[in-house]
Design brief:
By secondary structure, the protein is α+β, with helices and mostly antiparallel strands. Helix content is 31%, strand content 19%. It contains twelve helices and 14 strands. The chain is globular. The two termini are 19 Å apart.
């Protein structure tokens, strides 16, 4: 059973660094940040955690499985080499930033075992967030202009399970790229030291992101204007200690429930201009449930933020192979009182659908005034709700040979 402290239950077996293999990288060493990337430069790192069944002892794991995990990670990093580098200020301009890789760069890998209750961690019930957070690594700060992008932690729960956790600076890439990376690592691991890259191969051609309206400067300038320090530094927001009472819980919406929500919206919505997708109705349902649960005053506005993939929406469209951020935020709003009504999900769905339809105006129009809009939503009376990730990532297909993640 888990001890009272997550740290007390963790034993570090090894700490090492993994470099891309083979050592020679033929791609350009530096990748300039685009206007899609720059919005994430001060953001907190993203943490992903996969938990798998793994009925093996610590000795068997370290002697039989760990060497292949290391070598397959090294082989995979060769194709995703920017992740082994750093984000830094460009030598050409104080306002330009880049991802920079040089031979010898590497990512941190922590190997540990834990006596936390594995079945408790993978359950859907409320479980302590601190226990889950102990299974993902922290990015080490190397300096204001020298920030690593990626770190890994592999945690064994002897005879029960294994955790693959990693932390990434969002400035490097988006969730689509991360899923491509982790699936490629899993595939290479299963192929036993033979590169098994999940197609398509990543492309690092930054010229496909066209910026005729100079969104880069607008977004960077807007971001800096809201910082107390006029001299920006490449340090993501400090990680605050989470309250000991904070918990994670898992909720599911099955196919029957989703189809029922779609049928309800289609029958009662007066707007027929948007696609009533699984994503839209799921977010709308979530939005109304949380507004009801938190007891907000009925006469104020509530906001829902979600990310949209611009790859197919740009002119010309960005290739599927593009490696880098290609996300933009969407802001939906609705009156709390309207969402509290019996058919509040209809209003929530229409609000989200309206914003998605507005994307047809183009990326320059949609990202104009981005930062003033973001900061205007920081209101204590009704904090904006945001959602991350996408069902299209198909993360439950990340299989190292141990079955589906739990």
């Amino acid at each position: 059973m888990a001890s009272s402290s997550s740290n007390d239950s963790m034993r570090v077996l090894e700490q090492c660094r993994i470099s891309p293999s083979p050592a020679s990288i033929t791609q350009p060493p530096s990748l300039p940040l685009t206007f899609f990337d720059i919005t994430w430069i001060y953001s907190s790192p993203v943490e992903w955690l996969f938990l798998y069944p793994f009925p093996h002892s610590t000795v068997i794991f370290t002697e039989t499985y760990l060497p292949n995990l290391k070598s397959s990670l090294s082989l995979t990093l060769h194709h995703f080499y920017p992740l082994a580098g750093k984000v830094r200020r460009s030598s050409d301009s104080a306002n330009m930033y880049e991802l920079y890789y040089e031979e010898g760069d590497s990512v941190s890998l922590t190997v540990a075992d834990s006596d936390l209750d594995f079945l408790d961690l993978v359950g859907y019930h409320a479980r302590e967030s601190s226990k889950l957070r102990s299974l993902v690594p922290r990015l080490t700060q190397l300096g204001d202009d020298n920030r690593p992008l990626l770190a890994f932690q592999v945690t064994l729960f002897p005879d029960h399970g294994i955790g693959i956790g990693f932390t990434v600076h969002h400035v490097a890439c988006d969730g689509l790229n991360l899923t491509h990376f982790i699936k490629s690592w899993a595939s290479t691991y299963k192929s036993r030291d033979h590169v098994s890259l999940v197609p398509p191969s990543p492309s690092f051609d930054r010229s496909v992101i066209v910026d005729p309206c100079n969104l880069y400067s607008e977004l960077l300038g807007g971001m800096n204007s809201f910082r107390s320090d006029s001299n920006p530094v490449l340090i993501p927001a400090a990680e605050e200690s989470a309250p000991s009472s904070l918990v994670h819980a898992t909720f599911t919406l099955g196919p029957d429930r989703v189809e029922g929500l779609k049928a309800l919206v289609r029958s009662k919505s007066k707007s027929k201009s948007f696609n009533c997708s699984t994503f839209v109705v799921s977010c709308a349902y979530l939005w109304t449930c949380i507004v009801k649960a938190r007891g907000y005053q009925a006469d104020i506005m509530t906001h829902f933020i979600f990310a949209v993939d611009w790859r197919k929406r740009l002119q010309p469209p960005t290739p599927d192979t593009y490696f880098g951020n290609c996300l933009g935020p969407c802001f939906a709003e609705a009156n709390v009182g309207v969402l509290l009504q019996e058919d509040g999900i209809i209003a929530a769905t229409e609000a989200i659908g309206k914003v998605i339809e507005g994307l047809k105006e183009g990326v320059s129009k949609c990202l104009a005034g981005f930062w003033p809009r973001v900061f205007s939503l920081f209101v204590p009376e009704c904090p904006a709700l945001s959602v991350a990730g996408s069902p299209k990532f198909k993360v439950y297909e990340v299989d190292f040979g141990w079955g589906r993640p739990l």
